[in-house]
Amino acid sequence: MNITAEQPKVLTTKAVRDSDVVITMGCGDACPFFPDKRYEDWKLNDPAGQGIDAVRPIRDEIEGRIETLLADLIAQ
Description:
Elements: H1 13-17, E1 21-24, E2 38-41, H2 52-75
Parallel strand pairs: 1-2
C-alpha cells in the first residue's frame, strides 16, 4: 500500500461513531469517547518535523500494529 500522500487526520465524533475499533496516539481526553467502542492508545514517537530516516521506523511500527490488530479482529 502506498501511503505517501496520507496525512494525519483529526478524530471526529462521526468517525468514532462509525468505527468498531478506535486507535488513538496520545489524544487522551480530547478524543471523542463512546462506551461501546474498543479503544487502543498507541504510544509512538511523534514523526512531526522529523526526517525520513526517523519516520520510516515509526511507519513500520504502525504497519506491524495494524497487521496484529487485523489478525485479532479476524480471529474473533
